[in-house]
Design a protein that fits this description.
Elements: H1 16-20, H2 24-37, H3 44-57, E1 61-65, H4 68-78, E2 86-90, H5 96-103, E3 107-111, H6 122-128, E4 133-136, H7 148-158, E5 163-165, E6 173-174, E7 177-178, E8 185-189, E9 203-207, H8 210-220, H9 241-250, H10 254-274, E10 290-291, E11 297-300, H11 304-313, H12 343-351, E12 352-355, H13 363-380
Parallel strand pairs: 2-3, 2-4, 5-8
Antiparallel strand pairs: 1-9, 6-7, 6-10, 8-9, 11-12
Helix pairs in contact: 2-9, 3-9, 4-5, 4-8, 6-7, 10-13
Bound molecules: pyridoxal-5'-phosphate.
Pyridoxal-5'-phosphate binds at residues 67-69, 93-94, 96-97, 139, 165, 167-168, 189, 191, 201, 203.
Length: 381
């Protein structure tokens, strides 16, 4: 009998099939229910999902939308973000965070990140406030909340609302408060690779403010109320019933999936410490009072691209989130704040690497990842 060697172990970045297998019957039942109803857009499934998510996240209002990008777009529209206004946002995030600001004709003001948490530097946000600031848009990157205490203090002093980009952060926490409940609005994504993923695109906006919730519901459907009478110019930001039905099956499992990610993060910490890589590789931090939900487990490493190629040869998939910060994107070349200096975002873009962290990852797979990293630095040091 051939023995199993480490090289037999394959480690994908994410294995959605492993998550799907045990809930397959429930998912197919929910999809069948929607097919039998022949109601495909909004309707009872979406309303039920909104109630369940509002209760879970702990907000008065949850507005389901077509994607995380559209959640950000609608939230910015509801605040009147447009030409002549500014929105402060970290230069290091997924594209949509800044893309939505520019799509509305407003000016993003990029700020650098904290070198350890990867989230916006609160003192840089405070320095970026002007008379034209219409919103502060922090991102809870990788599933770790931004430093909301300091950011909310700056916002209160300036009299400016905060929109949380919580796309990667469902169930993340900050001093007992949940992501998406601290700002005026929270924006979530149900893109399949997020911790709560649909079978396609989906998103959510949370708020405690009833009139803002009404405005968002209006914007979601072309500003029409009643039908064909338009008081606002909105968009088609509606969610499909099929996506809502799938998300409702998945939602009760989210606690377990998040705990599995947190357990895997702890296991990586132990394995990295045991392998003697502590001073070579920077691991993600979970500052006191924060609850990280590890949508991504991102390390900082020297010779990142060579390491990535080595891991690929060892059948380990990794990803770079994100190789180009906003201030270096071609499409943002004319954004005035892009000329600034953002050393921490540049360093993150050049040295960060996301390792597999999904809940079903096995002990053997994680050992293979860490052993392969140790092998790389021992061999090429
Ligand atoms: C995924 C993501 C978005 C956009 O969500 P989509 O559902 O893909 O449109 C926005 N911001 C961040 C930080 C994200 O990770």
């Amino acid at each position: 009998m051939p023995t199993r060697s480490a090289s037999d172990v394959v480690v994908p970045l994410l294995d959605l099939s492993a998550q799907y297998r045990p809930i397959r019957e429930d998912i197919l039942g929910a999809i069948t229910r929607v097919c039998d109803s022949q109601r495909f857009i909004m309707g009872a499934e979406v309303e039920a999902l909104e109630r369940e998510l509002a209760a879970r996240i702990g907000v008065a209002h949850a507005i389901a939308v077509s994607s995380g990008t559209d959640a950000l777009l609608a939230a910015l529209m509801a605040l009147g973000v447009g030409p002549g206004t500014e929105v402060i946002t970290p230069t290091f995030s997924f594209f949509a965070t800044a893309g939505c600001v520019c799509r509305l004709g407003a000016t993003p003001i990029f700020v650098d990140i904290d070198p350890v948490t990867f989230n916006a530097d609160p003192s840089a946000i405070a320095r970026a406030v002007t008379r034209r600031t219409r919103a502060i848009l922090p991102v809870h990157l990788y599933g770790l909340c931004a430093d909301m205490g300091a950011i909310l203090a700056t916002a209160a002093e300036a009299g400016v609302p905060v929109i949380e980009d919580a796309a990667q952060a469902i169930d993340a926490g900050h001093r007992g408060r949940a992501a998406g409940t601290m700002g005026l609005m929270g924006c979530f994504s149900f893109f399949p690779s997020k911790n709560l993923g649909a079978f396609g695109d989906g998103g959510l906006i949370t708020t405690q403010d009833a009139s803002l919730a009404a405005e968002l519901r209006l914007l979601r459907n072309h500003g029409a109320e009643p039908k064909y009478f338009h008081s606002r110019i909105g968009g088609n930001f509606r969610l499909d019933a099929l996506q809502a039905a799938v998300l409702r099956v998945k939602l009760p499992h989210l606690d377990g999936w998040t705990e599995a990610r947190r357990r895997n993060a702890d296991r990586y910490r132990v394995l990295f410490a045991e392998s003697g890589l502590g001073s070579t590789v920077g691991l993600p931090s979970e500052p006191a009072g924060f609850r990280h939900i590890y949508n991504q487990f991102v390390i900082l490493t020297p010779r990142r691209d060579d390491l990535r190629a080595h891991l690929s040869r060892r059948q380990i998939q990794t990803e770079i989130y994100y190789p180009v910060p906003f201030h270096r994107q071609v499409c943002f070349a004319t954004v005035p704040s892009a000329v600034g200096s953002f050393p921490h975002a540049d360093r993150a873009a050049d040295t960060s690497l996301a390792l597999p962290i999904y809940g079903e990852l096995t002990d053997a797979q994680q050992r293979h990842v860490v052993a392969s990293i140790a092998e790389f630095y021992a061999v090429t040091a």
